[in-house]
Structures are given as structure tokens and as C-alpha cells.
Amino acid sequence: MIRYTDLKMTARQDLMQVLPLSKPFTVLIEPSSLCNFRCVQCFQGMPPSSAFMRARGTMPMALFREAVRQLRAWPGPKLKVLKLSLYGEPLVNRDFTDMVKTARQADVAERIETTTNAALLSRTVAERLVEDQLDYMRVSIYASNQSRQEAVTRSRVTLQAIRENLQVLREVKERAGSPRPFVSCKMLDSYGDDNEEFMSVFRDVADEVYIDKPHSWIKVDGADFIRGYYADRADEVMTDLRQHSTPRVACPMGFTTLAVRSDGAVAPCCVDFIGGTTLGSIADGGLRATWDSEGRYEFLKMQLEGRKHENPSCAQCDVFMSDHYTLDTIDGFPVSRLRPSE
Predict the structure, then answer these.
(1) Is residue 341 pLDDT above 80, yes or no?
(2) What are the Cα distances from residue 237, in Å, to 132, 212, 240, 300?
(3) Do 184 and 136 meet the contact criterion of CB atoms below 8 Å apart?
(4) pLDDT tens digits, residue range 139-177?
(5) Nearest of 134, 182, 137, 185 to residue 163 by alpha carbon
């Protein structure tokens, strides 16, 4: 299988040449916005009184089936990616393996993937994920030693337990003779020796290990996600991020992506944890109607015209300028071409 970190460079298309898309390349569906960790660099670690923390929940299986039904009924090519994760830990939802099976049987995407912290990856779950052929599992590791793990995740889950869970998955895969799910373990760049320590711990239980770059999420009052994780090295990290950023007017994500929250609300990206942009819902019109809606058109027009400041989420987001996360620049795409020709 292709390494996860190589996927973004495989069969890429020039967005300026293929927009507007008749359907998204990527759809994210959120099995759960709850998480068993409260990481200091994540909105999951925000105070319980915050709007995000109050609105969390798990997606009912019936709602997931309806989302998949809508995707299957949508004419055109398969999605490039169906990602079963968004703002929470997907394995918190006890129906997660049934969701994988449902998505696999529907055959709506070229690949199905998820992102997890693997703390809830039991043998039973591992066997189901192999049986139902989840394509990729990206595993987020937050530290290279136990004291740092506890400080960052604010949980009692040990690194050893996570490693053992991944070892079980590897054994299940080997017994079944299956390369799936391809396990890609990542840790945020420590800007130090912890990088190699992380890779040495997880290299033999994963198909790939790599160092990820941080970003600052949407800025909200009372939270400094970078400083929470890096403490006195935060200024150094922010300097590095600025040096590896490309000034852009338009964020390309909404032009290629839909994200379905656990309550069925549909957003144009996977970064908007504060819920500043809701374009529709599974129950009200559905995915295809949302994609073709006037609201989405106005959102994309806003991006191209440099009016991000008008949106409460986009105004506080700079993830789209990261060279690590964003490979496409669509500045200058004509607004007049946003609507597909009749």
C-alpha cells in the first residue's frame, strides 16, 4: 500500500483547472465529538463551559446510515476519501466498526480512513477493522515518554498500553494476511530528541512513523494551543510555522470538502471546531443539496473575494496558509466560474 504521507502527492489534480467540482473529493463524518483525552494543545482540553465542550456527542447509527445512503445516491465518481473522524475520538462510538462495515459495503470512496489515539483499540475492534478492511488508520501519539504523555493528554492511558494495542492490530493483520488497515503513527514535532525516541518506540508496531507539524487551530479567547503544548519553546515554534507558510487569500478546503458533525450538521472544512460555518444538515436537504446550495456558493465567493473576516471561524484561522497542510493555491480563480455550466 502507498504510505499515508505519500497519498497527498499521488495523482494530484490542479484545482485551478478542475474547479468547480460536481461533488467533493473528501467527506468527513464524525462518529464522535467526545474524546477520552483532554490534550493541552487541543480544543478538547478547553473548559467544560466552552461552547464546543457543551455541544459534544456521538453520532447515532441511523444518522450515519442516512449520510452513507446520500453519498451512494449522489451521481458521479467515488469520493477520493471518506474519513470517519473529525473533532473527537472515533472509537468512543461503540458503533464505529459497524460504520466502517457500512461504508465499505456502500463502496462510495476510493479509500476509507480514520484518525485515532488508539487507546480504545481492543482486540475485538482490531479484528473488525481488518475484517471490514479499513484502508488507513492514522494514530496520533502525543509524547515519547510517560510523564510527558500524562502531562499532555491529561489522562492515565500509558504509552505502553497504546503500543500494545497497536501490536495486537499488527498480529491480527499478519494472521489474516492483510495489509489493511495501514497504520501510520505520527507525533507533533518536538523540535528536539523526542522525535527519534517516539519513532524508536512505535516503528515496529506501525507501517509508517512520521513527525507532524503543529498548527494553532482557530484562535479563541482564553486558549493558546501552541503555548499549551510547547511552553517556553512556543515562540521558536511560531517562528518556524511563519517561515513555512504561504500567504493566501482563499482557503481551498471548502472547494473540495464537506464535514458532517456528529449531530448531522454539515460544514465546509475540518478545522471549524467552534461551528462558525454550518451550510446544511443531513436531515435538511442533505449532502448533495448542501454542496449545490446558495449558502455554500456565497461561502466560496467570500473566500475568493478576500472577505474571510466576515466569517467568525475563518477570521481567526490561518491553517490554510501552512505549507505542511495546504498544497493548493486558488487565489485568482474567477468567481464567475464557481457555478458549474448548465
Answers:
(1) no
(2) 40, 13, 5, 31
(3) yes
(4) 999 999 999 999 999 999 999 999 999 999 999 999 999
(5) 185
Angstrom distance (rounded) from CA 148 to CA 61: 36
* The predicted structure's pLDDT at residue 8: 86
Give the model's pLDDT for residue 148: 95
Quick one: cell of 205?
508496531
Q: Is the pTM of this model over 0.85?
A: yes
